[in-house]
Design brief:
By secondary structure, the chain is of the alpha/beta class. Helices cover 47% and strands 12% of the residues. The strands form 2 sheets. Strands 4-5-3-6-7 form a 5-stranded mixed β-sheet, covered by helices on one side. Strands 1-2 form a two-stranded antiparallel sheet. The longest helix has 24 residues. The chain is globular, with a radius of gyration of 21 Å. The N and C termini lie far apart (55 Å). The mean pLDDT is 94.
Length: 243
């Protein structure tokens, strides 16, 4: 199109037509129909089974971090591996369907870091190993080549693990190791468990004024410390905590 008209205007017109009408047609290249491209398939393009295969029970750390809207930094020297891994992580919180938190390829430059640090929550990918020394950038650091996950000192209190996390971790691992299940089925299993937790959390919040959960009300239920801690921070992440 650019060769034919020598101007980006025609290209922009085609782009805008896709945005406004969901279709783009040209004599040379045929038609593009946005309805042929299912966003659900795009969300499921990565493999959660590969993530669990690499990290096993430690996948629960990633699940908790995404649920609590933590800042996650992932490192791998190969951009392809970085893109494949990071795009899966938002699927751990399928109920949000929020891939806007994904910044899959970030450089350690002032301009890019300024943009990144303005975001309260993100999953950011870096090929530069120096990012491991930038403790100000992450709550959770994933070193893909070494298969290690590190929780920063500042995030350890909110990321405290207990029996609830162990149960969720076992569910994730068992589902992912089931050879009969597809990646989408594993995501569905995780999502069902997440919805149960959120339903319980909202039921607790509904007992409070303005349906906003308070720490005092949470403490009245005498949950184990790690569970109480998780529910408190999850309520904050889901914006149903009374501040």
């Amino acid at each position: 199109m650019y060769i034919k008209y020598g101007s980006p205007v025609k290209m922009m017109e085609a782009y805008i037509t896709v945005l406004t009408k969901g279709v783009c047609q040209s004599e040379e290249n045929g038609s593009f129909l946005i309805k042929d491209h299912d966003v659900q398939k795009a969300f499921l393009a990565g493999s959660i089974k590969d993530v669990v295969s690499q990290f096993g029970m430690e996948t629960i750390i990633l699940y908790t971090a995404v649920m609590l809207k933590k800042r996650i930094v992932v490192h791998h020297p190969r951009i392809e591996a970085l893109l494949e891994f990071t795009r899966v992580l938002p699927a751990l919180t399928w109920h949000r369907k929020d891939w806007s938190i994904l910044h899959p390829y970030v450089h350690l430059t002032d301009t890019e870091l300024e943009h990144l640090t303005k975001c309260p929550v993100y999953i950011a990918g870096f090929v530069d190993p120096e990012v491991s020394n930038r403790l100000d950038l992450f709550d959770v650091y994933v070193n893909l080549p070494e298969s290690t996950i590190t929780v920063s000192q500042g995030a350890k209190e909110s990321m405290m693990m207990g029996k609830l996390h162990k149960d969720i971790g076992h569910l994730i691992v068992q589902s992912a190791e089931d050879t009969e299940k597809s990646d989408s089925q594993v995501i569905k299993d995780i999502s069902i468990k997440t919805k149960q937790i959120l339903a319980h959390l909202r039921a607790l919040a509904d007992e409070c004024e303005r349906s906003k959960l308070t720490l005092e009300h949470l403490q009245q239920h005498h949950f184990p410390p790690a569970t109480e801690n998780f529910l408190f921070h999850l309520a904050a992440a889901e914006q149903i905590l009374c501040i």
